[in-house]
């Protein structure tokens, strides 16, 4: 009798835990309070506070996602559920509030109340826009080639490109105006870039101060419905559009995302059908591009290129090479090239670190002075005095 009661109690407990876990899994967001800390150095209170807030936000995401995973380990088949969470969780900041600030032993401490969301990032525009601002508000340039099979279908050549730019803007990205792009390149150069000339894409991106270049090809083909449908339905027109797109880091010429997609359209005439298919294909692929770019920027470390001009000795090279890995927020440093007094590195940084932070701290550590010649979200150019 006692053993039967124990089984009943155990069964009820398992049901309660399982229901609790389901409610956690269904929750779109959770509010947590954390502390963030930063060393109060010579760069002042403002930068220390900023670094402390970013540290608190990072800890909040870890805490929220960690709780989410821990709750799943209490149920049967916990490993399967935990694996699913690890693969699909998209922890991100939906909003935050600084509720206390203090300084102890040269450490700047902030207490923050943070709302951490768990939905797919691209599905929440407010959170997406906030995170885009936090990681430097990158600028995007779009070059898209659109081709419709039927020469007599009268649609704007820039229909798909305009639609893609519109979606990026609505998601919070800065997008470079198409007319500015076309004022610097001709049609042949545009075709060359879309065909895969990444060096030319980087050159154009640099001129327009773009951080990422999106290049895409879209083809729309007519589908004869008469072979499959009869009567009135058979008189409808149908098109299928296929699009492939790549995202290029404008500083390194590296492809950070490559996606494909399609869209279908049916209408009373070819123009209507082709337009519907083009818009659907563009919307589908842009949504995926936004998701890929956003998650890459927010969840992963970012890579910047450092160029140093007027490096006159191997000693200066060695001093730079030894100092870079010691900078705050630097994950990895890759020596790329040294020729004609020009030294190049690729540097992996934590998402919260800004290029300005690197320049300021590097100036403190090096025994020689330099001048900042140019600075962007993905590139820093210095010249030794």
What would the keywords be for this entry?
3 domains; Dodecin subunit-like; alpha+beta; 385 residues; five-stranded mixed β-sheet; 42% helix; Alpha-Beta Plaits; Rossmann fold; 32% strand; 11 helices
| N-to-C CA distance | 88 Å
CATH architecture of the largest domain: 3-Layer(aba) Sandwich
Mean pLDDT: 78
**Range of strand content:** 25-35%
What's the gist of this structure?
InterPro entries: FlgT_N_sf. By secondary structure, this protein is of the alpha+beta class. It is 42% helix and 32% strand.
Give the helices and strands, then pairings.
Elements: H1 2-26, E1 29-39, H2 44-72, H3 78-88, E2 92-104, E3 107-117, H4 125-134, E4 139-148, H5 159-170, E5 174-175, H6 178-182, H7 187-195, H8 198-207, E6 212-223, E7 237-249, E8 255-267, H9 270-299, E9 302-309, H10 314-323, E10 330-339, E11 342-349, H11 355-365, E12 370-375, E13 379-384
Parallel strand pairs: 4-5, 4-6, 9-13
Antiparallel strand pairs: 1-3, 2-3, 6-7, 7-8, 9-11, 10-11, 12-13
